[in-house]
Design a protein that fits this description.
- The structure is a homohexamer.
- With about 350 residues, chain A is an alpha/beta fold.
- Chain A is built from 10 helices and 14 strands.
- In chain A, helix 1 crosses helix 8 and helix 9 packs across helix 10.
- The radius of gyration of chain A is 19 Å and the shape is globular.
- At the A-E interface, strand 3, helix 2, strand 6 and strand 7 of A face strand 3, helix 2, strand 6 and strand 7 of E.
């Protein structure tokens, strides 16, 4: 398909620290050491499904940055555009994550300020980067970091758009990064160059003031900002260990909606990154050979359901497993317990 | 509120040894090392919620006793009245606990005989101790240890009562410590000085011969022994990993009952200490500034539900989390998955 | 009852490697190291329940074989007929097992070819072995290994039969070892000497071409091959973490069926070996003093339900626990949470 | 060689709890769970080297006792004479062990009082036990437990002696069990029936008032009490992680001494049980086919050196490895790093 | 001795993250989670030896801050003057520590900028704090943090001095916090109010331009700035796992030096905090009843040697153990391996 | 330098399973899961130092193969020429490794027969592979696997040579794969096309019948087979935890030798792969910009010494660390303990 990468994602790489098993953050003597970051998660999931992807970011040059780089490589994501921060105050942002159990909520403690990604500049990357990919993805988290990161992200979006890449954007609203008003003002400015837009129903309501049912909302985004594809995920949280997941997609060119029955009573091992995995599956369904919105729907839903059962932020899977999951989801009475 | 402690609890401190994860006691190569004991659990939970509490007990002076002392301190419970046993046969009582999974029951193996607490004497503690607290708590487990511990516990109750402390007592019947008849004979003798009484419905039936519904039972205890507040927890065990929990309280001075909908389908991580956590929350609701039975009910239920989701005997939480849990429990349709 | 062993089982001993907790095979830095093998599992479970059992197999003489031998002994199974392979290419077969979480299936990767059991020969065992047991058990897995193992297994069956042992056989069809046609051709040849036969409904349908309901199928096997007892387990897989388990037995001499209500919503910790545990319980129920098909049913079902809650392939339990489980299963409204 | 067992050992079985790695007893959240006991260690080591051995003791019938029984079996030691204690206050004695690092000493905390072994009585064992072994071993630890255990141990010694077993006895003086005077008075009474006697030089000096060099001491014991073989181990503790180990043996019938160069700068992983392993090797060297004092010396020293490098109380090894270790110890300039 | 605290220490509380065992920072899947900070380490060590100590600092109010607070309490250090940071960007400073093995050096990666301690202000603490202690301790690390922390630290020193506390100061030069010139200019300004001064020989040379032997240097500091006691530690690093440690003290009032033979070939488990442990022991020796410089020397050296053998930053010990270590260090030929 | 790769290595990829810490293979419940293989180790070490490297091999397509592929990528080695084996009997070879402690030897148990690498064929790789690298490396282990692997390896060597790559070969004699005679016959045939040759002194003596000192031996290989550079490592094994390491190099074009003082008393964490790391450092020193034999010597020795201190087969390091190690090795009296 002509370009070196199917997708490049811009976003912060984070160290994730979780207590073991069912312990609380203030208990115990060990942390599980994992890597995350919304856009990185999307790139990893898509790479595991078969796309050629890379991450655009900036991380410390020291041993902890080295850990991050190795983990990214392990997951098959290219690090050519992963800039190094050699300064004395370089740091990898951290988030602490505690698993929940009903009625105890999962808990996130962020320690991501002043991290190396905030020093990222356009000069860190060669000009040919913009010509090298079929799709560029980033999210509202990157914009929410504010300052030069926000400006550079918007500038990058424009440059990728100019060079012919499709622009994918996930609102991913985080109340701890910015207010709803700030988010709306910023995002509505970049929406006209977005081709693929992800926004949850509640964010559409609360942040963008959208009303009506989810289908009306999706179409209204598409109409208002001329967006080719708009998608919303639908998650029902029965408890921290049991979710139901589905999604709706609107495609402008055919003026049609895509839906299927949700994955019910998912046995949630780790819900972090399951929204990102949806985008991984979605973009794979769209960008693979003969990709289309129906495939985006099916791969997106299956990838997200699968991610919920995998420890860590990232979708560890392979195309066969997702394909099989889709088939089982659609089959009637032909399920099997396991192959052996 | 004038005194150094809001609550002092008397009881045995136990080392708890559990196999890791889902292993059985006879499997594996490691034990999880934790600290427990019914009354200590109450003091810890109340301390985490904001009361100033201390433990009255006796532990070995050697390294294992040192472990216990450090754990108690870590949980914010005062150790001024934690006597040390320097003798050659000092020992910390132990219980082995194995988690269950339906249809396999959880399993407890006790090894608590001859432990240092049995050498506790009134001389181990200064007289001013009795003036230093607003509330004294102990349970039927302490009485069930028998011998001098039982006598000293009863003597302490009287001395605390004299000095103006409210006396809190949890029946906590353990068939492995004494018979129902022994328990009834002993407990009915001390009930006249009890101010706050906790007794489960089944124990009321089987041990105290009470009949009628739970409300009648609660009132009958209050009437018969002139007890200010009587409470009963109600636990439905769907399986070792799924419980429903609620309670009923009777308050003598207003002749009224307090109830709310139970916490349903709690995702049980560790059920041990959840009854003790109820008492922690209850006493916090009653003893905090402007405390009352309604708060006792709400904090008690929430604390117990929360404890079931926390590994170990003890309630690791903070007042904000319990407050938020209560709000979610009472809210309609406004739940959130997690804050981030 | 006159002979040294109640039961001897022939089959491959396998090293099982699983990632920790909810990790995937390709994740993490450690494997749980366990021992398994269908027939060994049967021998272990039966030994834990009270039968005197032994394993007939061949394992390497090196340190990994030594690990296996020690684990077998720990579980109370005799190793007198466990031959050692001193050759340079001796190896213990391996299987990798990954736990599932809905919608992710559990996963098995086999690496069992060329293992030492394939070199097993009749010369490895003394002639008196055949006189030493009341029952001989093996399964379709052993026949499916093919080559000399299959021939030797059939030869052993005949020799044990001659010496008066009852022959127990579990179809245990594994599509990765042989085709359904191969299995049917081979198994139907040995069925005439089988006394106790285990076959699932789906295998009866697909492999043996049986039609009708499960009772008709069981009876048809018994009629056709003159088999004293035929049993089928019935498992409903709600999800990888929730199963329902029951069974049906047909006894020829009384022309009667044995059934009871299934164990519902078992909290599955590890489903591997739960079919083998059924046979352990079944054979214990049949072979113990005053054993009969009703006991076989009850012990079989309880043993399998219990096994699902225990980590590893093997049934770690004791007779009291299984007895108590059966009583609880049959009791109405008298359940208890745990004893303490 | 005619009898069922080469050796039966009488002694307490202990649960050993150690913190992980270099942690202190009061640190951390896990204990390593192991099994120990001086005489059991001797039986295990000897079994691993090739003798047929069994343990005579009494342990609880509950899950922790079950753990012990399984571990003993795993190590190849017979449990026919392992009595079960069904009483409510049955308990397995415990010792907590913390590894040292210079200048920090290793630390032992005992919690072994009131354990089930103290209820052991002669009625727990069949009369034929006394005829079933070529050698009976016990130690001063068993005598030091006092009470009925001491009396029964002495009675057993006499009965085994009558039935023709050689009596092996290790002083193993423990200052926390009895005083030197008590030990001397008790032990000198049983020495006349002892055939193989182990006593360290310092204990010979301090407890038995022996003077002179170690060879004179050994001979004086032999002369005074008519003991066939007397041995003393010699350990130099450079630091908790570095020991040098050797021994001297005196044989009465040849009036000769056996010595060899010590194992120097052993890299100590776990020194517990290394004295017991010496006795394992010693007895193997003496009791194996064509055994003699020279073999006792070489196997004893190698077994002890090897044990120091193995985690836990017990000697996990095999005859080939010990044989190879002896050869390397005696070889000059022909060492190899490892075989591959 | 009249005041509530023997010692209060001002300094940053740090989360320490280390890979397990011998892993590198970029390897593995877990971090050991520990707490550290030079001045906190001093307070903990002194508390474990018997002084009443507290920490002056500021930490986040969230779960990670809660972890820190609990760990501090566990170690017996008072948290009355531990201010909470409720702001959205509160953070606990972190350092990553990798153990070394010759020729690989241990490695430290700091991530401590922008942490909550930098927001500490004098208003966070009540005025009576300054009257409540016999000794105030801080170090060059606190001054090196710069900005308001440095100013507040100097102001606190003055206020404690005014209220009669002895001022203890450890240079603890860290090249990653400030340059030698900055350090010298700042420290020489506060030296006139310092009573107890710790400075290594190399820092005296390089940073303060001192020449001559260590005794001359110590005396010159004392003379120049009128300091009552000046001490220097002497560490020889044979390898990351083997150190030799000793110290020299100069006391002004007697114009005398204190020295003893060093602890040789310490088996280093974790060298971090061993310098702080020296100060713990030193201050205990000086501030305890009848304390003096000779005791300061002996307790300081023993505490540091001991700390090197303990995992984590902090000295987990008790007075008896240190006392025994000192005795063994001074004894000739009377060492013992362990007590049991 | 014109080509895509600096080095491509051909060899088997192995799963390595080791017990935790100091446990023996037959003990414990977990295996450490790591990846190894002599030639892969060389490629990884060289990649960590800065060369662009890839591995030529064949691994299973299933989850265990996926694990291997991810680990290789994590270490920065290209997987373009890592063929996948989709067959039902695909397997990743395994070796079990147990650490030693004097006098216990480290132990290796191989289970590598029938692995997927044995199915490797020239058709698995594109012709352009041979033009894409500056250097090709393989070892006697690959030749020792025999059969088609040996033939293909020799054919590949020739094709790489034709295309201008330098041929690097390490004898790496393994007695468990082939005899010395087989090895000599095979290797002497390929030596004429080898440019860089690694052979230990003992192998030169025993296998190739070389006599004289190591310098004479190196030169004789170079003269006889026209080899540009010949190197021999020199390891002194003081104990499993303490080695001394150095090497000698002969360069034909200058007829000169390269030597330096060895790294003494290395604190060995894991000696496996330290020989391979020598080659990594050697090839980096030779192939980097302005590389030469002096750099090969210094990087080779430092890389090997460093590897001994790192857990696992592979050299986890970075160029700065090795550079610093070399500087410290050559410095006199200017060492530092760590930077902070």
């Amino acid at each position: 398909m002509g370009k070196k990468f199917d997708m490049l994602a811009l976003g912060e790489v984070l160290l994730r620290l979780s207590p073991e098993g069912n312990e609380r953050l203030a208990q115990g003597t060990r942390f599980e050491k994992q890597l995350g970051g919304a856009e990185l998660n999307v790139a990893v999931g898509a790479a595991n499904l078969g796309l050629t992807t890379g991450i655009i970011s900036k991380i410390p040059s020291h041993a902890i940055g080295n850990y991050a780089k190795r983990e990214i490589r392990r997951n098959g994501v290219d690090t050519d555009y992963l800039a190094g921060d050699d300064s004395a105050d370089s740091r990898l942002g951290i988030y602490y994550y505690e698993y929940g159990a009903d009625p105890r909520k999962p808990q996130v403690v962020y320690d991501r300020k002043y991290s190396s990604v905030n020093k990222l500049s356009l000069e860190d990357f060669p000009e040919e980067m913009y010509e090298n990919t079929r799709c560029f993805h980033t999210s509202g988290i990157t914009l929410g970091l504010g300052g030069p990161v926000r400006e550079n992200a918007i500038e990058m979006m424009k440059k990728f758009k100019e060079k012919g890449a499709r622009i994918s954007f996930d609102v991913n609203f985080r109340g701890n990064l910015w207010t709803g008003d700030e988010a709306r003002d910023c995002i509505t400015k970049i929406l006209p160059i977005v081709d693929i837009f992800f926004c949850s129903e509640s964010t559409a309501n609360l942040t963008f003031g959208k009303t009506g049912d989810i289908k009306e909302i999706l179409k209204s985004f598409s109409d208002e900002y001329d967006i080719a594809v708009v998608a919303a995920t639908q998650r029902i949280v029965h408890s921290p260990k049991s979710h139901t997941f589905g999604s709706v997609i609107y495609e402008k060119k055919t003026d049609s909606y895509y839906e299927e029955k949700p994955y019910e009573k998912i046995e949630v091992v780790d819900r972090i990154g399951s929204g990102d995995a949806y985008i991984s599956g979605f973009l794979y369904g769209l960008l693979k050979e003969n990709g289309n919105c129906q495939d985006a729907l099916e791969y997106g839903n299956a990838a997200s359901a699968m991610k919920n059962t995998v420890s860590g932020d990232m979708l560890w899977t392979d195309p066969q497993e997702i394909q099989q999951t889709i088939e089982m989801h659609h089959s009637i009475g032909q399920d099997f317990e396991m192959k052996r």
